[in-house]
Design a protein that fits this description.
Blueprint lengths: L6 E5 L9 H4 L4 E2 L14 E4 L4 E3 L9 H7 L4 E19 L5 E19 L9 E7 L3 E10 L6 E2 L5 E2 L6 E4 L6 H12 L2 H4 L2 E8 L11 H8 L3 E5 L4 H16 L4 E5 L3 E3 L2 H12 L5 E8 L5 E4 L2 E4 L4 E4 L5 E4 L11 H5 L22 E5 H7 L10 H11 L4 E11 L12 H16 L5 H16 L3 H15 L12 H9 L7 E2 L24 H4 L1 H11 L13 E3 L6 H4 L4 E5 L6 E5 L2 H20 L1 H15 L2 H9 L2
Parallel strand pairs: 11-12, 11-14, 12-13, 16-22, 24-25
Antiparallel strand pairs: 1-8, 2-4, 3-8, 4-7, 5-6, 5-7, 5-8, 9-10, 14-21, 15-22, 16-17, 16-21, 17-20, 18-19, 23-26, 25-26
Helix pairs in contact: 3-5, 11-13, 11-19, 12-18, 13-18
Length: 647
Amino acid sequence: MSTSTREPLARILLPSRGEPADVRMLYLIEMEQNKDRLRWDNRTSVAIPAGAEVSFETYFNAFPAAYWRRWSQLRSVFLTLEVQGRATLSFYRSKQDGQRISISHEEVTTGHHEFELELRNFEDGGWLWFDVTADEDTVLADAAWCAPAAPAAQVLPDGSELAPQPKRVAVGIPTFNRPADAVAALQALQSDPFVDEIIDYVLMPDQGTAHPADHPGYAEAVEHFGERFREFRQGNLGGSGGYSRIMFEALENTESPYILYMDDDIAIEPDSIYRAVQVARYAAKPIVVGGQMLNLQERSQLRTTGEQVNRKDFMWGAAPHAVYDHDFAKYPLRAIGTPQTHIDPRNYDSRALHRRVDVEYNGWWMCLFPRVVAETIGQPLPLFIKWDDTEYSLRAAAHGFPTVTWPGAAIWHMAWADKDDAIDWQAYFHLRNRLIVAALYHEGDPGGIFRSIFRSTLKHVMCMEYSTIAIQIEAMEDFLAGPDQLFDILETSLPRIAEIRKEYSDAVVIESADQLPPATGAPGVPTRNVGGRLGKVKKIPWLLKSVKHLVTKQDPAHHEAPQLNLTPEEARWFTLSRVDSATVSTAGGTGVAFRKRDRNLAWELMSESVELQQTIEKDFDQLREKYRAALPELTSRESWRKVFDAQ
């Protein structure tokens, strides 16, 4: 780093070698009028040809000033950098609507430079950044956004103080049958010495049968970390079991002040780990620091800026002012449109990216917990997967520890739209755990929850997703059984669900539709969606025809050959409810499921599901009491110790 003694909060980074143009837009923007390209041989030093201009108004290098103003102890920030040559630095800030405000223009020559910038103008939103114009060939090196002072004590929810914590973190990566991904994650952690320096421990619960230890590169990665690396072989306890093991080991057997969760099937910007730790250290009070998700398959795309739980139906949703699927290559932070384009709501721009977003939870693809939070509120719930991350943040908030999803700290992860988790085996955990967390945190009339579940069940019937309804019935029965058996079924639920799904054709994946007879066709059945303001009205005739078709007896001939071969995007209720069979490709394109309409089976499953929904709604107050009374036991370290000791 530079000769400055100031403590970096976030380094100014160059893209890794070989990154495509769209990914480079996450780091810097070279102006179109430049005659020569910028050059860099490492990630912290860039050569700017004379006359060239570059902007660092980018996702990874602009400073999210509104978040630092809201959540940190800081009232100003320093930009520090080393310069060889002569250039002009132009400093800017944005308002919550993206409007750019010029702060100053500073000429710099060879040497070390520091510039202090205030954070008082960022109540509702805004970023800080700088542009560079090279007056002669110039090299910028070791640039960083830095704190003006060391972190101070933090105020705990009870009013007491927590002393400043050291810059150390235990990184936990649970893995399940992804040995190549797990090894790649270990290699990424050691790829940046600056970040590697603050990693106390790497904790890896291995819950699969294909072990990272047997994969090339593992031995070298473990040798690098030495005694800092600890692997834990255990049965498949799901994500909650893997992450709970990480928290358990970090609290029991390390003194790390921070615990950072990471998925194994991700790509990471290593500096994100450092940034999350610094956010946590400089926070005015202890907070859970969430990393944002970038799309692993569209790497310039940000999946979401933040989420909350909608209390009406107790389902995940966008936090106020949140943005989904934003592509920085097409719409960089500066792409805020004009007064003319703002008139038409169909015109998209980046204005919303400048507004601060306050969230309720963050996914555990990347999430950091201060040790004091884990010690205060306990372990994750034994939920296997789904809702464990949401519940933990809701519980933390109830104890006075909010969650913040932090811009510029991020991993790349496969987007949710590329998974079938709403209809495959995970549907059991989606519903069971949603009900559990609702019992713990939902207040008032639960009717909205069950209206939502009923609508979902109807859609599954219309789409011939009978296996989904069957395992959702199992989910509701397990929820009704109460909290006492959650640890007992932690390891057995998945095999049980897998056995149930085998009984239904829609859960059986065939390698390709060409293994079946050619599609016979379904004239007049729509396969394309109707959008626009009147979309719902236009679908009313389709709904009436669907109802008429669903009450008729299915044609057995259509169970021999599908009527349609559909992509996941085409497999909508208004299409599937008008046919007796269809193949539907998996979200990942690895095969197809042959769905076959069965009127009697659909009625049987629907009736059983509705009866359970009504029972749960009627008894929801008593179920709330049971689950809330059991929460301390379910989240205690001693309860989880018994689980891990039995592995």
